[in-house]
Structures are given as C-alpha cells and as structure tokens.
C-alpha cells in the first residue's frame, strides 16, 4: 500500500501541544497506509481492531494502549462490533523535552520509524485511564495538562514493569544487578551472560520471556545511560566515553546513542553541559 503523510501543522493549531479525539473505526480494510510527522497515543475504549503496518498486523482488543512514532506507515481497521478509539496527537518537540528530563521514559516513545509499543490495561486501569482522558479532553491544549496526563500513565506502566522484573529467576536478578557496573557491561552482552553462568541461548530466552528484551538491548541501554551521565558530568571526549563503555566503533556508538536519546552525543552534551569547557 502507498503511504500518504499527515502533518502536525494540519491538525494542531499554533500554540497547541496536543490534539484529542474520539472516533469509531471503519471495518473496511485500509486502502492505503499513512505516515505522520508527530507522535501518537491511542487506545481501544471498547471493541477490537487491527493495526496494519508494512511489517504485518497487530491485533488489538479493548484496553490496548499503543504508542506510535513518526515515520511509521500504518492504518487502523475495526473488527466486529463498533470499535471506539481514543487518540492523542503530540508534537515531537514535546516528547523530546519529556525524554530529555526523564530519560527513563524513552522506551515508551520509539524512535522515528520503529515498531509501536503496546500495553494492555485491564478494566480497573482502563476506568482510571478514561477518567484522566476526560480531564485532558476538557483541558487547554498546553504542555502542563498534557504532562499531567502522560507522566502518571507512564509512571504506572513503569511501576508494573518493575513488578514484572521482580519475577525473574534469582540467577538472572543477580546478573542484572552485576551488569550495572561498567566493568561488566563494558563487555557487552557477553559480560551479562558470563554473570548468569548459563548458555547464551538460555539467557536470551529467559530475558525475552521476563523482560521483553535481548541481552544486547538490555546492555546497550545501560551503556547509553552511562554515556549520557558522562556527557553531562565530565569533560571526557566522545572517544574516551565510548571506550569506557566498551564500544570501539564510533559510528556504532553514535547510532546507539541517537536511538536511545533522539540526538547525537555532541548535541546531548551541548544541551546538558553548558557550563563545562568542551574537549576538542
């Protein structure tokens, strides 16, 4: 399917940070996918639906919440009885500002073109979400009210994720504590696997089941978070920081950092380290 592009300038009025809408999905198969230059959060208030992307189809049911990035061609199709959807369009600059202040929330807002992030809310959580949505719907379209809606939702999701992480087997829990150390994560996924004392394939299967991440994904996130702290708090050169976290290839370092934070290491340093003399 050919993808058309939707632009935030066509949806958001000047000064508006978000757009809120409710609609009933058509049961007709999307004739074309559409791309967009904004972030989007939507959930099914009731009914079922399909999220269609170039990579396949994602089945959705009542209570499913989806975070969509810019640059991901997609379409939505209702399934069965009326499928009611609640949708929030958000300026990418607003998301970038949130992630800069709260780096731990970046996993909820995938980089441009990346696969959507999906969560399910049970009837109790969906009721609370609906109440928060009603308040947002009636509020001014400002950053204050958007953040008052987003941050509690993400904090709730993060709290649940920590609860799930507590279910990991003891050998993995111990390894996840050990790998927080640069001396361990400097060796990448191999350093984490070595701490587990298990075969790589077994560690990978267990992490995927318990955490939804591969060993490489988990370790690279720790590496990039450490690199970000060094960029903010030290005058060390980019090469020195990359070497400290065990990455010799600077192109790979830049790619991982941009995926994690949405900007290059140098841009991140300029933004967060105004008062420190920068190395050449």
Automatic annotation (TrEMBL):
GO molecular function annotations of the record: DNA-binding transcription factor activity; sequence-specific DNA binding
The UniProt record lists the keyword Glycoprotein: no
Highest taxon of source: Bacteria
Domain HTH araC/xylS-type, first and last residues per copy: 192-271
Keywords in alphabetical order: Activator, DNA-binding, Transcription, Transcription regulation
Identification of the protein by name: AraC family transcriptional regulator
Species for this entry: Celeribacter indicus
